[in-house]
């Protein structure tokens, strides 16, 4: 389609940008990470969000090219912030297609090799739980491979994949991200609260780290903290921030 070639062109023309949403550790009272979220500065249509273009390249080889652009850009960003005195790990979202691509390991090593200054703990990958479940053994193997390089994985939108309980043991992701759909209504909805509580107990039993997504109010923060979930991401901390504004935001909240 026309949009496909427009996207291909937009990668070459550097029309994509990454915004960064902070992750907070309420216990340590610090910013413990930032998730890179892509946007398209379209020359005619203005700023476009992922839901307007990622579905077009779902499962298409272009999504691998875009992921590679994101990886390279996030590493450069980390390096630039590092030079400004910040040391904030960046996570990037990896598409299903990249993950299942045979040369993904080579791409990672190639990318890291081009930036010898980067500490591998500065970068981590987020993978949708539903994607990981498509090929648990392959993705589990990839996670182990990356862990040896020092790169960690997070299982994103956790709780939406239904098979969480049985498959978690085959997926050695360090971090579990509780899907925002459960977090949003947990204070009013007993079922959602039970799911959040269940995920927290599960991650604890499996020795994984956990963060709640889509946290919008202080009340949510207090409740999550009391339940043993001090890590939060969501509008209550900040909306996704432009890369050039990020260092100043960190300075203001620190
Ligand atoms: O803020 P937001 O609208 O950016 O993100 C919507 C969804 O798009 C998120 O659920 C996220 O999984 C996905 N997404 C955001 N940025 C990227 C990216 O750089 N690569 C991939 N593959 N997915 C992304
Ligand atoms: O699926 P993933 O978790 O990668 O995507 C995060 C998405 O959720 C992005 O679209 C981001 O802009 C959005 N988001 C982040 N924090 C909040 C929040 O507190 N509330 C809502 N409604 N959306 C959020
Ligand atoms: Na994601
Ligand atoms: Mn995410």
From TrEMBL:
Residues 1-254 form the EAL domain. This is Diguanylate cyclase. It comes from the Bacteria. It comes from Hydrogenovibrio marinus.
């Amino acid at each position: 389609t026309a949009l496909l070639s427009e996207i291909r062109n937009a990668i070459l023309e550097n029309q994509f940008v990454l915004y960064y949403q902070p992750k907070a550790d309420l216990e340590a009272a610090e910013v413990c990470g930032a998730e890179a979220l892509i946007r398209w500065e379209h020359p005619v249509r203005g700023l476009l969000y992922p839901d307007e273009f990622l579905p077009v390249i779902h499962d298409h080889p272009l999504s691998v090219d875009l992921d590679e652009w994101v990886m390279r850009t996030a590493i450069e960003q980390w390096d630039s912030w590092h030079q400004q005195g910040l040391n904030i790990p960046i996570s990037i979202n990896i598409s299903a297609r990249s993950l299942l691509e045979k040369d993904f390991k080579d791409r990672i090593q190639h990318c890291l090799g081009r930036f010898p200054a980067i500490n591998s703990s500065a970068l981590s990958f987020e993978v949708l739980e539903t994607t990981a479940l498509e090929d648990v053994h392959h993705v589990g193997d990839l996670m182990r491979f990356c862990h040896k390089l020092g790169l960690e994985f997070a299982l994103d939108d956790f709780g939406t994949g239904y098979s969480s309980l049985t498959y978690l043991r085959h997926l050695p992701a360090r971090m579990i991200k509780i899907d925002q759909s459960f977090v949003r209504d947990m204070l009013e909805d007993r079922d959602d609260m039970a799911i959040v509580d269940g995920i927290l107990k599960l991650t604890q039993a499996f020795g994984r780290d956990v963060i709640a997504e889509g946290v919008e109010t202080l009340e949510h923060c207090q409740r999550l903290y009391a339940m043993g979930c001090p890590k939060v991401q969501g509008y209550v901390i900040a909306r996704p921030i432009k890369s050039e504004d990020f260092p100043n935001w960190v300075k203001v909240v620190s």
